[in-house]
Amino acid sequence: MSVKIISRATWGAAPWDNDPRSDGPAYVPLSSRREFFVHYDGAHHVGRTGYAVPRAIEAQHLAQGWSGVGYHFVVDQAGNIYEGRGWTRTGAHCPGFNVSGIGVQIAVGGDQEPSEAALAACRALYDEACQRTGRTLAKRGHRDGIATLCPGPRLYAWVQAGMPAKGYQPPTGGTAPTGVARYQVTINGLSYGYGAEGSHVTRVGEALVAKGHGDAYEVGPGPKWSDADTKNYAAYQRSLGFSGDDADGVPGESSLRSLLGTLPGKTTTAKPKPKPKPKPPAFPGRSAFGPGKRNANVTRLGEALVAKGYGRFYKVGPGPSWSNADRNAVRAFQRAQGWTGSDADGYPGPETWRRLVA
Ligand SMILES: [Zn+2]
Fold first, then answer.
1. Percent of the chain at pLDDT above 90?
2. I need a surface site. Which of 21, 64, 82, 304 has the fewest CB within 10 A?
3. 151 CA → ligand 1 middle, Å
4. Are the CB atoms for 277 and 23 separated by under 8 Å?
């Protein structure tokens, strides 16, 4: 069972970067996710409803020079969930955590009371995120990542209380009376876990037997995922050093990859789609960067730095106005390339641009 998400196409999102040729924010595999961040909309109550909720956020984020909505998802007071960056793109919601953290905004502001429907939807999204990633994501408020009031006192207390939602049951199918996990994850478009079916399930079973983790099979592995598959897979996960929820017998991407060598399914590389990439943006010239400069290339550079792990330099942003944070992040990146002197002055030249953005 999956939560219902209103797609970008349905709510009428603009093309990424307001540019139909744009590929959008960088791909991030589910295996990179570690945290689930809750946000609010800011100081003011939100009165908008329906598609106007994500559209207003999009307009604001595009105006900041971002690619589009920076949150992975947005939840409104009616409990609707809108797709922002979605499951597998880098976010722009919390510097330093845009790759490892899934960011969700509950569209309330100030002291506005979040509705039970909104909290239940956010909680369902959290559980779905844990299923998809195959791990228990850390529950975070934006202020756990950076100094900010976000997500406001009410939502932050809710996160700290463990995100309870009245009458809400995690959509996992629960745990069998035997204590064996019974839920499914989707990896590369294929399902794994109790009840999943297909030749890829047989392939997992055969690989488990080959690695010496076939004890729970009474008959050989087959195409329908059973508790025996889960028990054997859990034994394999423990052999890799996983424990707790990470060794519950439902595959995560990394254990599956090490079991099979490659991931079965529609793609075997980190590329989400095989369509030809538009030409990367050309180096705009040194004059695009530096004190007082404000343009989309500064944003693009900043987002690329964040995606490469240099987000710690940003207290806010990145954004279109050149800042000391941009300079410090560029310098750190340049030094990491082994460059020194004027090659590591914190201003991008063509080679810095090529390695980061192109
Ligand atoms: Zn926030």
1. 69
2. 21
3. 6
4. yes
What's the CA gap between 120 and 112, in Å, rounded?
17
Q: Which residues lie near ion ligand 1 (Cβ < 5 Å)?
A: 39, 142, 150
Measured in angstroms, how far is the CA atom of residue 186 from the centroid of ligand 1? 28
Is the C-alpha dihedral spanning 62, 67, 73, 78 positive or negative? positive
Residue 166 lies in a domain: no
pLDDT in tens, 173-193: 444 445 677 777 888 889 899
Domain boundary among 121, 144, 160: 160
| Dist CA 278 CA 194 (whole Å) | 40
Q: What is the pLDDT of residue 1?
A: 41
Cα–Cα dist 74/84, whole Å: 7
Domain membership of residue 277 (yes or no) is: no
The verdict on 42 and 145 lying in the same domain is yes
Same domain flag for 135 and 251: no
CATH number at residue 146: 3.40.80.10
Q: Beta-strand (E) ranges in 64-170?
A: 73-75, 81-83, 101-106, 138-141
Element (H, E) at 187: strand 184-187
Instruction: Answer for the pair 89, 22: CB distance below 8 angstroms, yes or no.
Output: no
Tell me, in angstroms, the distance from the centre of ligand 1 to residue 142's CA: 5
Domain match, 225 and 315 both: no
Residue 171: predicted pLDDT: 52
> Would 58 be classed as within a structural domain?
yes
pTM score, two decimals?
A: 0.52
Within 10 Å of residue 49's Cβ, how many Cβ atoms? 12
**Whether the Cβ atoms of residue 304 and residue 279 lie closer than 8 Å to each other:** no
Q: Which domain holds residue 218?
A: 184-260
Distance 93 CA to ligand 1 centre (A): 6
- Cα–Cα distance, 236 to 175 (Å, whole number): 20
* Contact between residue 110 and residue 43 where contact means Cβ atoms under 8 Å apart: yes
